[in-house]
Amino acid sequence: MGPPRPRTSPEWRPFAQGLSPRSTAYALSVLGAMYRWLIQQRYVLANPFAGIKVLGSGRTAPLDTSHAFTEGEWMLVRTLANGLEWSYGWDAVAAQRLRFVLDFGYATGLRGSELVGATLGGIEIDPHSDHWLNLVGKGAKAGKVALPPLARIALDRYLVERGLPVTPARWDPHTPLIGSLGQEPANGITGTRLWGVLRRFFAQAADLIQADHPVAAEKLRQASPHWMRHTHATHALARGAELTTVRDNLRHASISTTSIYLHGDEVKRARQLGAAFSAP
Predict the structure, then answer these.
(1) Domains in the chain and their CATH numbers?
(2) Given this model, what pLDDT does residue 42 score?
(3) pLDDT reported for residue 245
(4) What pTM was estimated for this model as a whole?
(5) Which residue, among 78, 24, 94, has the nearest Cα to 202 in the 3D structure?
(6) What is the average per-residue pLDDT within 227-237?
(7) In sequence order, what E strands does 112-240 have?
(8) Do 164 and 175 meet the contact criterion of CB atoms below 8 Å apart?
């Protein structure tokens, strides 16, 4: 069967085996909602799925916070990306796009689907001269993400490389932030394509650093676009961003979800208690 694959992967096979308890419960909730609607429309008299419970579906697996790069690992990744066309055989246009995806995704914490769906028309500048990206996120919910300087500089550079205007007044609002490599650079790419581009880079980077950085190389071989989101959250909190700020920018429903990235608090707690109860 092989390892689990993300939904954006061409190797994703949702019906290759039985559903997990959580997926079964979700499928039953969808069917239940459909039958409730059918009852309201007087197509049927009863909901055959009412009252069915799935054992083991109540537990939600916590996010794996190991799916993030350390500061040093991320710096190494970006250094390798800087030399793609000169040292590793990438086309210049593909290398430029890859660097933009790394910088913009890392600086904003966007999901992969949000990255490929974002357009220039979603960018706004408020009365305080702060930059924001309006988008449609998970569950078709409208969201608003801050664009820090790293994201804005990456975007300006990438627009110039694509031959597009940098001035917002001259933007075509329908232009996707991530361009294709074909005859129409103003066209976008799919989530599957983004997954493939990043996986190709991560795999190549892993091979390049295997001898000197085996742990980082193994992480790169497992990495997906969502790792940039985890890395964004981890680094933002470690650099002093408030928990509520990171929660709002990631658009987590609960602050408990964001708090799992507080590795620094655990380090501080261990050191302070170690100092308080040091061995004689």
Answers:
(1) 24-56 (no CATH), 71-255 (1.10.443.10)
(2) 82
(3) 81
(4) 0.71
(5) 78
(6) 89
(7) 123-125, 131-136, 142-146
(8) yes
